[in-house]
């Protein structure tokens, strides 16, 4: 039996039985591909991504330790549902997922259900066709994962109240930690799409202007306070028109899916440059994404109610259900020259104040149009305990409290340090994973690269 995605049930006290039904039916799915219980890509997931092999990029899904070549399936007319059968053009033949993402939720759901059926234990189409199976299922060890969408624009938000409060306390004191606007709207800024890179890309330490403590003028320097930020990102699927807003309860139908995001940050460069227009060079040098886009249908069994917002949001931001997904996020740090990594923090997506729907709706309220492939991040996700802080800035409290990691300490990242942000949802007998989100710090360029 193939699990049918429910069209975003409102999860509250009146329909918890609907959520229990989703979880039960999802846990019963089985594939002919062996997948360990703690593996992130079981048949319940069906993520979407792009891999490259022998210089060619191809659209894919994943099951266990295999990528699933969607172009081969499409060429063999195995996307045979009524919606795909009516299409005149191939959607999985390109270098990115944008053509598929633009189709909208009914097509996304049909494609996902088709893949679940083809990969299920009781479907012989792939299972018993050795030649076709060999073309469709490619070992992940033989491919390289790429950024899955052509991203035109990128916006980063600042939507975790705990993180905003912590940073505010450091720089303005407890009484003025949150700016007056923070609880009224999702604060954000426009980022740089060109430097969004796939997991596994090395990150060069940036250089720029910094101002040392107690100094009045800046100096030229490599970044001395290089940091990570635990975030999640959302990809826009269905575009919107310029001049037209997106209603809050329609926002989900524009969101194709989610990934893990490390929005690297040069804290000392930012401290000098951000007045009055906000972050610039401190945030534009690299943002790392996990390579797979996880659909909202796969995440639906993990939808969790968020606390009531105070003050009550304005009508355009007020949802039928204020909720998000229970995504666990572990920060693995492998220090330079070491083999062992250490989990130094474990925040959770449920520690957000403004959710994805509110972020997208607020971004569009002025009539800003969205294109397929546009991307936006949550901002750093932090909990209330130190073990759930989503940045070194918080973990070492601005450099005042060095963090003990194994037999060393860290305030900020050193050359050779490697980060991996791992996100997952834990189901009953299965796990929904996002894939690795890794980056290793390379030394800054020598000055002769600049002048």
Helix-strand category: alpha+beta
Outline: globular
**Poorly predicted regions:** 1-15
On the 0 to 100 scale, the average pLDDT is 94
Computed CA radius of gyration, to the nearest angstrom: 22 Å
Distance between the termini: 65 Å
Query: What is the total tally of β strands?
Result: 27
Q: Counting H and I runs of at least 4 residues, what is the number of helices?
A: 12
- Specify the biggest β-sheet: 8 strands, mixed
Please bin the fraction of helical residues: 10-25%
Which percent band covers the strand fraction? 15-25%
* Oligomer status: single chain
Question: What report would you give on this structure?
Answer:
Strand 23 (403-405) and strand 24 form a beta hairpin. The protein is globular, with a radius of gyration of 22 Å. The strands form seven sheets. Strands 6, 7, 8, 13, 14, 16, 17 and 22 form an eight-stranded mixed sheet that branches. Strands 9, 20, 21, 25, 26 and 27 form a six-stranded mixed sheet that branches. The longest helix is centred in the N-terminal third of the chain and has 15 residues, at 105-119. It is of the alpha+beta class. It has helices spanning 16-27, 70-75, 82-85, 98-101, 105-119, 124-127, 130-136, 161-172, 267-273, 296-299, 356-364, 392-395; strands spanning 49-53, 56-63, 66-69, 137-139, 144-146, 154-157, 188-190, 196-198, 203-204, 207-210, 219-222, 226-227, 230-236, 255-262, 265-266, 287-289, 294-295, 303-305, 323-325, 328-334, 342-345, 375-377, 403-405, 408-410, 418-426, 431-433, 438-442. It starts with 15 loop residues before the first helix and ends in a 9-residue tail after the last strand. Helices cover 20% and strands 24% of the residues. Residues 1-15 have low confidence and may be disordered.
